[in-house]
Design goal:
The protein has about 425 residues and is an alpha+beta fold. The protein folds into two domains: about 5-20 and about 240-435, UDP-n-acetylglucosamine1-carboxyvinyl-transferase, Chain (Alpha-beta prism); about 20-235, Enolpyruvate transferase domain (UDP-n-acetylglucosamine1-carboxyvinyl-transferase, Chain, Alpha-beta prism). It has 14 helices and 23 strands.
Length: about 425
């Protein structure tokens, strides 16, 4: 496993271009399986999870041509579903959670699919109920092999459109059901659907391919099944979470950073959340400019109560940013309660921040109170271990702001979600070395 060696306490300066969105890329790549025609996808990030899914697609028989950096042409013309029975697929499928989204496309196009219980971040229980319940309502048979830990899904003729009320607005679950419904017979209605920009992008892509989807951007999606889908071109949006990571990094290291081409209209409430943290950021056309700040003061609620920041389905705050906001709060002026509602293990990384000198009270698995140090007392460099993608980048941000040298191990977790992060940080002036 690789490590990062970081000398912290430096202010950074420069411009950065955000990578393509990780979560959108995983959905769009799975949608390739819905047609035998070519799709050209641009702005795909060169990250671990995407590389893993591309390998799965290659092994399934998808023809993949790389046109340039982040630019791929894919064609799922001759698919070998027997690959799903191999040990190799089981290992790849378990390594990333995004692998579950091949289920909908393969089931609706070929009538059968086998999927292992997917892996990914160790941040608590992540149920598959939204996926399996939706596919079952569309007419799929489902059998779970308890010893081998995988599911067999199959349908005799074709999936049939149905009314689906989702118990939770699962993003990957919504994506899976939408893709399955595009080739199902009749009409499918999905209520309480996730409506993130990445789901909107998926629907727009599918409509360009010939699907009939209405209600894009709402939580009520109407899909009329079609006989077949065709090819098209699509460009991935910039990654909202990576944009938030750069904002947080700029604030805690007192740096001046310009984030280019952020697609403001799809950022939702993210800029407002950072404003509540007291962080100045300016809109320059389609860029974000963060000036160097020696102090940022957390705003209190209207009743003068301590500010609470919590995650919620879109248009609420994505849970992926809470780890970053927790680190940023350690050097703010004031206090904040971070409430992570969705995953019970995501805040456990704060013990590492406490070791670095942060003042944090972990109230329970879902809540942490952060008392900001206002840069009066810096975090201290130490040896850290990256437990998952978002905690990993958060610890990296903490190390960049800390006095002294830090070592971050298990950086493969960070590489799963962030493209060439060490090289891009060095361009901004960071002292970071990758050790293999």
């Amino acid at each position: 496993m690789g490590s990062f060696k970081i000398k912290g306490g430096l202010s950074l300066k420069g411009e950065i271009q955000p990578q393509g969105a990780k979560n959108e890329s995983l959905q769009i790549l799975c949608a390739v399986l819905l047609t035998s025609e070519k799709l050209r996808i641009k702005n795909i990030p060169e990250i671990g999870d995407v590389k893993c899914l591309i390998q799965i697609l290659k092994d399934l028989g998808v023809l993949i041509k790389k046109n340039g950096i982040g630019d791929y042409t894919l064609q799922a013309k001759n698919i070998n579903t027997e690959y799903l029975n191999t040990k190799k697929f089981c290992e790849y499928g378990k390594s990333i959670r995004g692998s579950i989204m091949i289920a909908g496309p393969l089931l609706t196009r070929f009538g059968k699919v086998r999927i292992p219980i997917p892996g990914g971040d160790r941040i608590g229980r992540r149920r598959l109920d939204a996926h399996l319940t939706g596919l079952k309502l569309l007419g799929s048979n489902i059998y779970y092999h308890n010893e081998s830990k995988y599911f067999d899904l199959w349908v005799k003729n074709s999936l049939i459109g149905e009314y689906i009320l989702m118990e939770e607005a699962s993003v990957t679950g919504t994506a899976n059901i939408i893709m399955a419904a595009t080739l199902a017979k009749g009409k499918t209605i999905i209520y309480n659907a996730a409506c993130e920009p990445y789901i909107q992008q998926l629907c727009k892509l599918l409509n360009k391919m010939g699907a009939k989807i209405k209600g894009i951007g709402s939580n009520l999606i109407n899909i009329t099944g079609v006989e077949e889908l065709g090819g098209c071109e699509h460009t991935i949006l910039p990654d909202i979470v990576e944009i938030g990571s750069w904002i947080g990094l700029a604030a805690i290291t007192c740096s001046e950073i310009r984030i280019k081409n952020v697609n403001w209209k799809n950022l939702g409430i993210v800029p407002n959340i950072f404003h509540k943290m007291g962080i100045k950021l300016e809109k320059e056309k389609n860029n974000i400019y963060i000036p160097s700040q020696k102090c940022y003061q957390i705003k209190k609620s209207l009743n003068n109560a301590i500010l609470t920041i919590s995650d919620a389905p879109w248009p609420g705050l994505t849970p992926d940013l809470l780890s970053i906001l927790t680190v940023v709060a350690t050097q703010a002026k004031g206090s904040v309660l971070i409430h992570q509602k969705m995953f019970e293990s995501r805040l456990f990384f704060v013990d590492k921040l406490i070791e670095m000198g942060a003042q944090i009270i972990l109230c329970d698995p879902h809540r942490a109170t952060v008392i900001g140090l206002n840069h009066k007392s810096s975090l201290r460099g130490t040896t850290l271990n990256s437990p998952d993608i978002r905690a990993g980048i958060s610890l990296l941000i903490a190390a960049l702001s800390a006095k002294g040298t830090s070592i971050i191990k298990n950086i493969e977790q960070i590489d799963r979600g962030y493209e060439n992060i060490d090289k891009r940080l060095r361009i901004l002036g960071a002292d970071i070395l990758r050790i293999k």
